[in-house]
Design brief:
The protein is about 15% helix and about 40% strand. Strand 3 and strand 4 form a beta hairpin. The radius of gyration is 18 Å and the shape is globular.
Length: about 200
């Protein structure tokens, strides 16, 4: 069975056009800095400050970090971080599939023109594999299936990632996405491939 490219998805933000204009000014548009592997998706030239919470002193300084905004704009705001990021920023971030934000974590987005308070939208992205229908047929899986993926970089950290969800669409390109914590744990920096195992 063919191997699957494993990509590390660093922490990032998706915003609506409405929020983008609050953060950067009326009429602001995202500009492409770098195209991503998934068709039509890109890292923009804009970054936004994600402000978390100070658990020890609610009235004290709040931790924050600058995160890249990915485009194009979406119908909902979403912040994707790792467990390490969540702890550092004082964020509550459940493991969810992208788009499943109901009841998820909250934070503040701060841009040069204004702020947006998110009452939900902060998640740790569930690891997943993007596939076309043809890919899914070749691998013998369907949208929503949960599989195990073995990643062996030859660096002494062979890892089997369970709970990996299959996502199928004509708009996708074949690739598995993990976060930076998962990448570091498995020494998966650079060009890495995995394979679905029983």
């Amino acid at each position: 069975m063919k191997e699957i490219l494993v990509e590390t998805s660093a922490r990032h933000v998706h915003v609506t056009q409405e929020s983008l204009e609050v953060l950067f000014g009326k009429g602001h548009q995202l500009e492409v800095r770098k195209m991503l592997s998934q068709p039509g998706q890109f890292a923009s030239t804009d970054k936004v400050e994600v402000v978390g919470y100070n658990a020890k002193d609610p009235n004290g300084p709040r931790p924050s970090a600058m995160l890249s905004i990915l485009g194009p704009v979406r119908k909902s705001n979403q912040v994707e971080v790792s467990f390490t990021d969540a702890r550092t920023l004082g964020l509550v971030a459940p493991v969810r599939e992208s788009g499943d934000i109901a009841g998820s974590g909250k934070c503040t987005l701060r841009g040069p023109a204004g702020e947006v308070e998110l009452q939900e939208g902060v998640i740790i992205a569930k690891r997943h594999i993007h596939m076309t229908p043809a890919d899914a047929e070749e691998f013998g899986v369907k949208n929503g299936d949960i599989v195990n993926v073995e990643v062996d970089t030859g660096k002494g950290r062979k890892t089997i990632f369970g709970d990996t969800v299959i996502r199928v669409s004509e708009k996708f390109a074949l690739a598995m996405h993990i976060d930076t914590d998962e990448c570091n744990a498995s020494c998966a920096a650079g060009q890495v491939f995995g394979r679905i195992v029983k």
